[in-house]
Amino acid sequence: MTSHDWFDEHRMEYAMHLLDARDTATFEDHLASCAACRDEVAAIERDLAWLPMGAEPAAPRPDFRRRAVDEVLRHERARRGPRWMPMAAAASLLLALGSWWAGTRRADAELATARARLEALEDTLSVIRGAGRVLQASVEMNGAQGGLLIFADERTHRWNVVVHGLPPAPPTGRYQFWFICAEGMVRGAEVRMPGEKPANFTTDMPTVPCTVQGAALSVEPMDATTGPPKGDMIAHLML
Amino acid sequence: MTDPQGRAVDRRGLVPTSREASLLRRLVARDEQALVELVDLASPWMLGVAEAMLRDRDEAEEVVMEAFRTAWRNVSDAQADARGLMPYLLRVVRHRAIDRLRARRRRQLKLVRVAAEEAGRSVVPAVEPDEAGQPGWHVHRKVHDALERLPAEQAAAVRLAYFEGLTQSEVAETLDIPLGTVKTRLRLAFVRLRGELSGLKDWVL
Fold it and tell me: How far is B190 from chain A (nearest CA, A)?
């Protein structure tokens, strides 16, 4: 057995994350200098990328979506919070170089984010400008007058949806967007109303086969995350 | 499937690809609505992977939240990953779950549970037909079928090692077979699965 035979034999186990920590470290050291193993591991990972989908899905708890989103955004805010650097440490050349490097990286990251924002804005605008039809419906919620506005882009089969004038969802419920289909109601995106600002999102047509005839907005109970509507319909419009 | 005007749209063509690209672009742009959509669509599958390994709902949720944080923070990595966003998330979940199993030294307790349940379990759980409308179900169905076609002894090794996160030595102990036999069965199984699943390239959403 040559020294490389061990790596040949263990490529699959490495790619499937089955090696123990010591063998994993050995393999990773080897990968740094072996293009053939790198390519083969990448090919195995690509071919078996969907294997985890063999696990049975687990229905999330009713409040999981809200907790998960809040948790991600809370960490994001904490990570982007105010940074300060001790004056003494700032005097250190090493730290200064480190800061310069980190600043460069941060600037690059912010530039990439700004570019992505621009692309997303352009994408949203392209849907609005390409819309062959604009649909709107009035919405009343707890005395507040709002609206549901849909720009339907026939070229890309996407909609830009604007929900405005509504108060935040009650603590026991959430706003839910629906597609009205000939086959029944098909769940779309949850709509988060961030205070006074309108909610705006671009959506594709449902992934399940159906004939879309319109759209609706409801207030769903927190635990109604699957199946047909269970809450109060507050707006609907037909194509 | 049809567009807003009722015209047919190829659901394996433009729309899924466009939706993945659109979702990724919006995630990169820090669109919180896109994050909500991602959590909605991916959570059942991510929780399924984590729970099968950790057997603890609270810990599974922690791992899935970690994965969402990672994806949100490093979404450009997911964008660059040729395998796509969903495989990226599933891989992060699985690796984090394995790390937890190893770090928290819960293996002994887990082995006792697994051994106790081993006798009465089928190799691959049955598919519930009423869930066929769930996004991603067609991919689950194909993977499930590929696992069912494996010889029973290979499927058992894959379930314990890959889906439940046991080390190969623990698989050998659980199934009462030599370690070399475990390695051989896993290798044969993964080669066969690779052949069957490599054609799955459609985005699940």
Answer: 8
